[in-house]
Write a structure and sequence with these properties.
Blueprint lengths: L9 E9 L2 E9 L3 E3 L2 E3 L8 E7 L3 E2 L4 E8 L4 E6 L3 E3 L8 E9 L4 E4 L4 E3 L4 E10 L4 E10 L11 E9 L7 E8 L11 E8 L6 H13 L4 E7 L5 E8 L2 H22 L12 E3 L2
Helix pairs in contact: 1-2
């Protein structure tokens, strides 16, 4: 009998609410993922757990197979980011890196998922799927972004980017399937922009989505050299924002502006208990 194929590198995190705080109750990870301490540092939202993901390799290589699962159980609040932008290196002809991320946000939970962008090097090839399964009364902000870089300054581009974003409510057909497939692109198609991103803001019923869209567009319009367009998600689920910037700094500023809108909504919708002195800005052993 032939040996079974090894499991792909995987990160599997589960979060629960205990004693008015969010804690990690399952943390499984294998190379290249690294998970260090998580923190409660938000004085206005003391139940929110901040998680910084790291990778031992610091990059995505041509034949990597990366799988990440995040489960936010009832009433949890989680902020996720990464240690920095991740380089996607050259893939051999016929090969491409694969990445799948599944975000499950259960009842009354809140997720702020903002990883740093991918840096696509010449001849890089990446296929990624990002899936958000968000309860009807939960909320989530999810961003995804990439930029391009040729260390030799010759203007060479990546070979392929195949990206799919899926948003659904539990048990329902997808509310949104957003696909982008770029193969052997020419620099002219980017119109002078080098950084591109998407932000999806999913909210429970009761919010004025049209007003939220206008508020977000107004905040983004104040950022120089950033092009952004916002549209309403089907079934009044929230908004979807596309961004393009000349450099990554404009895209980051755009994500920060959207995150500020989300934070305002999130704080306004939840009763926040004042943190104790001993609980503020201390790492958790979760």
């Amino acid at each position: 009998m032939s040996a079974s194929a090894p499991e792909p590198p995987r990160l599997d995190l589960s979060f629960v609410r205990r004693g008015g705080r969010t804690m990690i109750d399952r943390r499984l990870f294998a190379w290249p993922f690294v998970l260090t301490r998580s923190f409660h540092t938000d004085a206005e939202r003391p139940d929110l757990l901040s998680v910084i993901l790291q990778t031992g390799s610091g990059a995505v290589h041509g034949e990597d197979r990366l799988v990440q699962h995040f489960t936010l159980h009832a009433g949890t609040a989680v902020g996720v980011t990464t240690q920095g932008a991740t380089s996607v290196h050259r893939a051999e002809p016929g090969a491409r890196a694969m990445e799948q991320v599944l975000l499950r946000v259960e009842t009354h939970a809140s997720l702020d998922y903002r990883p740093e962008p991918r840096i696509l090097f010449p001849d890089a090839a990446l296929c990624q799927v990002l899936e958000l399964d968000c309860a009807q009364d939960a909320s989530a902000l999810v961003t995804d972004a990439f930029t391009m870089h040729d260390p030799n300054g010759q203007g060479r581009l990546f070979r392929e980017l195949n990206s799919t974003l899926i948003v659904r409510r539990p048990g329902d057909e997808p509310l949104l399937i957003d696909r982008m497939h770029l193969r052997a692109p020419a620099m002219a198609m980017f119109k002078g922009h080098r950084a591109f991103g998407t932000a999806v803001l999913v909210l429970p019923p009761g919010h004025d989505r049209a007003a939220l869209r206008q508020h977000s567009v107004g905040a983004l319009a104040r950022i120089d050299d950033l092009y952004a367009a916002a549209s309403l998600l089907p079934h009044d689920a929230g908004i979807n924002v596309r961004l393009a910037g000349r450099e990554m700094r404009q895209l980051r500023a755009g994500f920060d502006a959207i995150a500020a809108v989300y934070r305002e909504i999130d704080l306004g919708a939840r009763a926040v208990q004042a943190p104790s002195t001993s609980a503020t800005a201390r790492p958790t052993a979760a």
